[in-house]
Amino acid sequence: MVAALTALNRACSRLLRSPNTALFASARAQQPSARIRQNAITAPSRFPAAVAQRQSAHATPRRLFSQTRRRPYQNYHNNNNPHDPHERLRNAKPLFTDGGLRGFIRSPSTHTVAALAFLGAVGFYFYNLQTVPVSGRKRFNCFTEESVEAVSEQQVKRIEWEVERQGGRFLSDWDPRTRMVKRVMRRLIPVSGMEDSDWEVRVIDDPRQANAFVLPGGKVFVYSGIIPIARNEDGLAAVLGHEIAHNLAQHIGERMSGQIGINILLGSFVLLTALWGGAILGTQLFGGTVLDLLFSRPMGRKQETEADYIGLLMMAEACYDPEQALGFWQRMEHMEHQQEAPPEWMSTHPSNHNRIEKIKKWLPEAMDKRAQSDCSGTAAFADRFRRALAQGLIIPVQ
Ligand SMILES: [Zn+2]
């Protein structure tokens, strides 16, 4: 058996070494050319130029799967064809060089421009400083009411889309809850001094959400879940009066300004703001900002206090009972402490422990205001507030 295997192995070896075997055909075919090449390199020649040409032609390694001769390598890299985009890219000069950048930074004209931009930014900041009449608070607000309204008007469609995406629906105009909200707004709009706005009331059918907001420009959104907490039209007037007060005090514009305040101080956006104002910044930078400010970020404590006071006096001027505002806030605070998830409205209108105490303190003034009002919807307080804001005056709070 072993002898038979040994014999078979020898036969196979002979077959593999045989010149007639196909496996060695290609290797054998290359052998003569290899010999010629070796002779050409080693043997002296009478034609050295021809030898050099042959040497360079054979210097590149033979390609395994192609029998065509490779084009000279230099053709790819020494192409001076100006129409070749790759060639133009290879020869392109860098836009910024270290030396050029250093020169730009050290240039006296750069320093002058930077200093002017900084001074302009500081001037712009102080020019747009305002005093909030009811609190005497100083704030930076570079947005006019019109520019904030223009930005927020673009958001209405987005809100409607969001509501429908979350499975919500808007109540019809004939629903008792919609009619209730509209009745309250009909009395609050005249005292707000914003009768010229394009007012629109939408009530969202969602009993789980206790929320309401008024977009600058007059778009009112109320979630049906807040109506039971408000209990009656006076309570609803407290909610909507507070929301309108945020608009009257231009709190959204103030918060939008606060977002770019640091950049403006650094001089980055001063030219943009001066040249194009709310038009470009409003649409490009603040497209979603109004909604973010309304839905996800809580108002500041001082802004809340201002809105509480302004809202209370406006609802009193519209002949609603200011004491109902106290009851509404007490119910809200009670819910906030009782429930795991406090009402949505509380997340954007955070309570502070002395809110109710302050409203109690303001109640006599609000009751006087109500007694003096002829309930015909005069905007005495709102007009006084606007004049004071424009003139930098303070309205004394009792
Ligand atoms: Zn608020």
Automatic annotation (TrEMBL):
Its cofactor is Zn(2+). Residues 177-362 form the Peptidase M48 domain. Binds 1 zinc ion per subunit. The chain crosses the membrane at residues 264-295. CDD domains: M48C_Oma1_like. Residues 52-90 are annotated as: Disordered. Keywords: Hydrolase, Membrane, Metal-binding, Metalloprotease, Protease, Transmembrane, Transmembrane helix, Zinc. Residues 73-82 have a biased composition (Low complexity). InterPro entries: Mito/Outer_Membr_Metalloprot, Peptidase_M48. It holds the Pfam family Peptidase_M48. Belongs to the peptidase M48 family. PANTHER family: METALLOENDOPEPTIDASE OMA1 (PTHR22726), METALLOENDOPEPTIDASE OMA1, MITOCHONDRIAL (PTHR22726:SF1). This is Mitochondrial metalloendopeptidase OMA1. It comes from Apiospora hydei. The lineage of its organism: Eukaryota, Fungi, Dikarya, Ascomycota, Pezizomycotina.
